[in-house]
Amino acid sequence: MIVRTTAEITGTERDVAGKGWRSKRIVLGGDRVGFSFHETTIDAGSEHVFHYLNHVEAVWLVEGEGTLHDLDNDVAYPLAPGSMYLLDGHERHRLIARTRMRMMCVFNPPVTGQEVHDSDGVYPLIAAPVG
């Protein structure tokens, strides 16, 4: 059994931040459960383009408001608490945060925590260490 709090991972290697976003990686590939689970916050007024070519991501917005723009299909979706979106087609997308947004995210395959978005917003596929 694994029990963790976001408080205990704050400030560790599981707490990753970029310009206008922060991701607390609660469950990672090294935990060997087949997915990773993150709490992600997006700063108010920020915009981010992501494209997960190697991962499927499910996102549940628990706090804040913004817009999800599916860049592959030119469709925009309003987001508010209780909204969920699933990037099951590896859609390139833009998140626009009207207010600070807090989301719970699941990735499959799991991320290891070492991934960095490339210039296209893509995470590379990195295998979790064995052991």
Automatic annotation (TrEMBL):
This protein's pathway: Amine and polyamine biosynthesis; ectoine biosynthesis; L-ectoine from L-aspartate 4-semialdehyde: step 3/3
The enzyme's E.C. designation: 4.2.1.108
Catalytic activity: (2S)-4-acetamido-2-aminobutanoate = L-ectoine + H2O
Enzyme class: lyase
InterPro entries for this protein: Ectoine_synth, RmlC-like_jellyroll, RmlC_Cupin_sf
Keyword Lyase recorded: yes
A Pfam match: Ectoine_synth
GO molecular function terms listed in the Swiss-Prot or TrEMBL record: ectoine synthase activity
Keyword list, A-Z: Lyase
Database matches in SUPFAM superfamilies: RmlC-like cupins (SSF51182)
Gene Ontology process terms (BP): ectoine biosynthetic process
Function, as annotated: Catalyzes the circularization of gamma-N-acetyl-alpha,gamma-diaminobutyric acid (ADABA) to ectoine (1,4,5,6-tetrahydro-2-methyl-4-pyrimidine carboxylic acid), which is an excellent osmoprotectant.
Family: Belongs to the ectoine synthase family.
Protein name from the UniProt record: L-ectoine synthase
Lineage of origin: Bacteria, Bacillati, Actinomycetota, Actinomycetes, Mycobacteriales
